[in-house]
Design goal:
By secondary structure, the chain is mainly beta. Helix content is 13%, strand content 49%.
Length: 310
Amino acid sequence: MAGTLRSNTNAMFPKLLFALTTICAICSTLNASIHQFDLKMVGSLPMIKGIVQNDTGYFILDTGAPGLALHHAIDTNTATVSYGIDGQVLSNQTVINEFELGTLNWQNIEAQILDLNHLSKAKGVKVLGLLGVELFKDYVLTIDYNNRKLYCQETDFKGNVIDSLPVKYQLVQEGQMLLLNNRVYAFFMIGNELLTTLIDTGAELCVISNKHFRKWRSHFDVLRKIQVIDVSGKSSTYVKAGYADGLEFGSLVLGKFLAIKSPIGSIHNLGEQPLNLIAGNSLMANYVVQFNFKKRVFALLHYTDLPTKV
């Protein structure tokens, strides 16, 4: 009987091995639709390590940028127009043969060329570029500031994710977002006033428009004036900085966040609707932030799988 049992076990072993291999292959296939990245928070800017044209460095995750932008000296002979908070900045357009970001890869992708040397000097890291919205429009993008993670979930044509994230988040509030010129806009409220808001992960602080500041007077505690440098590194201005509150997103009343009072240049083609607010990381980093570009949904989440404190 022992010999028979041993014989049956040996005969079954290849089948068990095949079954285990098949299960592993299925698990690998399921996880292949989720791309996970480690975030490096430099100041309040989320950065991801990547490779472009065999050069390795960091890229700022920037939903305020329309697409890929790379560091280079500006050639004004072939300049197109790129924009910063305070106005227009000239940049070049080029085509990159290959760009790698972890498990994601792009070939023959268009990119703007900007001089980002001032960012590298200010942040003490090698900044090679900006990662704008165009790169992520086929994914659900989830930014977990607290745990320094970025997730890109592949979706079907309707925007439904193929696989669930490896961590659980709790929905706090979601709302409609507009995707115009590859920039993300949502609608917030201050009092009974509707605010057209740019969601900008490439901005360290929130920016309240000078033209709309009267609505914030009782909700803004000025701390001091600070110097703000635009994306070109060639223009700067001193603006009032302080804590703002009273901002609402749907039924959610947001807590205090750092903001500056500044002009917002005419950089957004929104028809007659002015841009009132730029929501930067001083606000966004209090949440897990999620963008479903196909469904046009912007959501604020909380992390539910909190690690145990020792």
